[in-house]
Every structure is written in C-alpha cells, then in structure tokens.
Amino acid sequence: MSSYTRTNAWNNGGTFDNPTLLWYAKGVGVMQSRALNDSSSWWFFAAIHGEYIGESGYPGWGSIPAPPQVPTSPMPSQSDQEKFWDQCQHQSWYFPPWHRGYLLALEAQVREAVISLGGPSDWALPYWDYFGPGDEFEIPPAFTEQNLPDGSPNPLFVNARYGPNSDGNIFIPIPPVSQNCENNTLYTGSNTQTRPPGFGGPSTGFSHSGGMSGNLESNPHNQVHVDVGGNSPDGDIWGLMSDPGIAALDPIFYIHHCNIDRMWAAWNDKGNGNPTDPNWLSGPAASGEREFIMPMPYGDWVYTPADVNSLSQLDYTYDDMSTAFVAPRPSENLALRLKKLGAARPAETVSGADMDSELELVGANDKALKIKSSGARATVNLDSGVQDKLTSSLAEASEASLPDRVYLQLENVRGNRDSYKLDVSVNQQKAGTVALFGLRRASQPDGEHGGEGLNFMLDITEVIDNLFLSNTLDEGALDVRIVPNQAVTDSSDLSVGRVSVYRQGRQ
Ligand SMILES: [Cu+2]
Known about the structure:
The chain is α+β, with helices and mostly antiparallel strands. It is 24% helix and 16% strand. Strands 2, 6, 7, 8, 9, 10, 11, 12, 13 and 14 form a ten-stranded mixed beta sheet that branches. Helix 1 (19-32) packs across helix 4 (95-116) and helix 4 (95-116) packs across helix 6 (252-269). The protein starts with a strand and ends with a strand. It binds copper (II) ion. Residues 221, 225, 257 line the site of copper (II) ion (CU).
C-alpha cells in the first residue's frame, strides 16, 4: 500500500469544498511567504523549473503583474543557483522522469507546510484530468477565486492566466488536445534523432531547451500549457503557463503535470515499457552532465530516471489510472489500415502502430516561411524515386509486406513568443496541431542549441493513405498550410526553417 494517493482536482466540483484543494492553497500560501533564496519557497521551486529573474521587461520576473507578487531578491548563492535552477528537461526522453521527481519534491514541501498548519499528514497533489467527464475540460473553479472561503487572498489565483481566447476563460479545447499519445507503443526511437520521437521523447543529453518533443510532451502537455497561459487581451504579454521560465509560478502548473505523470503511469500500466538504455536509466549525470537534484524537507535528493521508473518503486499512487478509451485512428490499427488499403485477408489483431526504423526524406519545400496571422503555405516537392517506394509499399501492403508510415516535420521553428498553436494541414486534410511552448528560449542564439529553435514531427500516415487512395499522391507535390490559432503580433517573429516529409519502412 502506498502512503499517498493523488486524487482528481474536480472532486467536490473542483471548488474549495474539495479539502485537497483548500489545503493545497494554504500550503502554497506558506511557501509563497518564504524568501526567494529559501530552497523551500514557492519562488525557488519555480526557478528550479526555469527562471528569467535577471531579464528586464516581461517575462523578467520583476515585470510580472501581481498576484502573485514575484520577488527577484534575495538571490541564493551562485552555487545553489547552478546546482538547482533551470533544470527542467524538455524535448527529451528525460521529460517524464525529471518532472516526476520535481512533482515529488514540490508535493513533499507542500505536505510539510500543510502539516505545519494542522492539515492531513497524508496530503497528496491532485491532478487535473481535462479529458474527464462533464465540465472537467475547464480549470477547477478553486483556481479562479480571488479569495479563500475565509476571505483571505487565494494563493491559487494568478493574474497572468488568459486562456485560449485571451479572455480569462480557462479551458482546454478537445480536440485538438488529445490522448492519442496513449496509443504509442514505443517510448523512444532507438537512440537517434532520425526516428519519430515516440511517447516519451528523443534520446538526448541534459536538455533544458530546444529540439523535438515526444508525443506525451507535445500533445497534451505543450498544448495545455499554451491554452491555459494564452495571451493578454491587448496582446502585450502572454500568460505564465505559456512559457517554461515563468510557468511554475502558476499553481495550476503542478496540477497539470500531475495529470501528465498519471498518463505516463497509465501508459506503462497498459504494458508499454520505458527505455532500458543505460543512458536513460542513469540520467545525464552519468555522462558528466548536470544531475537531477531537488530540495526535500529532509535535505537534498539526487535521483536518476531509474529511481522513478515505476510507481511500484515509489510511495504514491493514483486513485484512478484509467485514461479514457482512445479509439485508435485507422492508421494506428494495422488491421483497419490494411483493410482500408485493400490488402487481402487483413490481420485480425491490433498491432502496435510504432516502427523503429530510420526515416528517409521524401521531399521538402525550398525556403524558410514567415508565419503571419493569416498563416503560411508551402509546396513540398516529392523526390520521384522515394515517392515510388512509398507508393508501392501502400499498393502492395499486406501482412507480409507492411505499408510505410509517413511523417511531416516543421524544422527550426523560431520566434519570440511561446503562446501560440499552429494548425497544420496537408492538401486540406488536418495533419495536426503543435504548441510553441519553449520557443523563445530555444530561439536565442546563446541557448543550448545555438538558437536552432524547435522541431515538430507529425504522423501524417492517415493523410497519405487517403491521398494515395484518391490517386492524388502521384501529383508529385504536397500543399502544406500552417495557420496560427489566433492573430500573431509582429514582434513574435515566427518562422519555420523548412517543411519536410519522411517515409518510414518496416525493417
Ligand atoms: Cu510543463
């Protein structure tokens, strides 16, 4: 039996009638009363994820509209900053395990504060399951109250939280936000960046910004961040949740991440395995990079992915591990796909959709694109030789000769604002939606990847199957459109370096 059970934040209507939320608010209040240089303060914890304390102007911490009133001093020692701050792992296979450890530490600190106030000694973080029934796609109401039931200010309320329509109405649009990542069968493509990123993300070293997100990170994680944070009504600033260097200042952050952690555990519960590669298990510190380290109430905790690999090793569980049944798209169910492509005697059983083989370039557009409010359009010309391989794999698909999968990449996406989503279509069929969480930092030339920005990979197997069946694939070119979810400001300076299409064959 686990000592701690994480429960649904929407219990008791998601209001302060839910005691877990009331105690969360009070615990957050205690942590917010501590100084920036106190490793158990709310501000120190947000900075562990990421911080812009030294930046002037928004999103510098000194320019964040209260509440909360965010401090920028007293600074902890240089060595504490280097040891703890700016640790979050994004666009990486370390995304799930790093955040699991981060949640455990924050939860332990809140619990300590709750106990100090006379609250329950088994308090545990609640999760926000935006895919749940009824109104659960909306933020639990306790987060939007200005005051606690006793009339004091509500520590869960933040000013800079604007929602998908920039009007302060916070909800998650479903779709495009989805649980489709739960249908992945591979955590990562084997040890190379030239394969699809899988459920958990591509193999990387210590990865604070830049590169390509895994599917859990991309959707729902990144999208929920940007939907909650959004942009202010005047467009001058974006919400805290939209940007990794300010996101963990918003108490909804941890409730969102608790659901992401639950989705990882649920994916494992369905029989999907985490990496067994020692580079994943031992974390980046084993290769001489930074370690994963958290301030716990009892002292510092250094951990590796192997330490947080499974809930059975840890002292908490979730009251409900089921994620809603996600019907596989035709492209994710091999039997359905073979039938659709006209194969004789299609397989009866559902087989894992993911393949672990190298991608081959089928074609790309010829120049960088600027993303305006009206969007952008690219023609992807297909190499006739590679296209022939793709077409014959679809034409000859059978159980013995499995059809290719196809991916669209947006390479080197750059810009100064994270708070947008881009809808991508191919020949007027929906290909997917990506959120730009992490874009600004990943585009800065002094950043980890020299300002190369973010890469996105969308599985467009189903679109290509449809184009093949309607004989439009032979035209030798694809019409790709990229449309932002709302008007983009000029200063956002959004661009896409290249649009490319890849095939992946069974080995
Ligand atoms: Cu996050």
